[in-house]
Amino acid sequence: MPIIKTGIVGLDALLYGGIREGNSVLVEGVPGTGKTTLALEFIYHGAVRYGEAGVIVTFEQLPEQFYRDAANFGWDLRALERENKLRVVCTSPELLLDPGTGLLEEVVSEVGAKRIVIDSVTHFANILPDPLELRRAVYSFCNGLKRMGLTSFLVKEIEDSGNRIIPF
Question: Whole-prediction pTM value?
Answer without folding.
Answer: 0.91
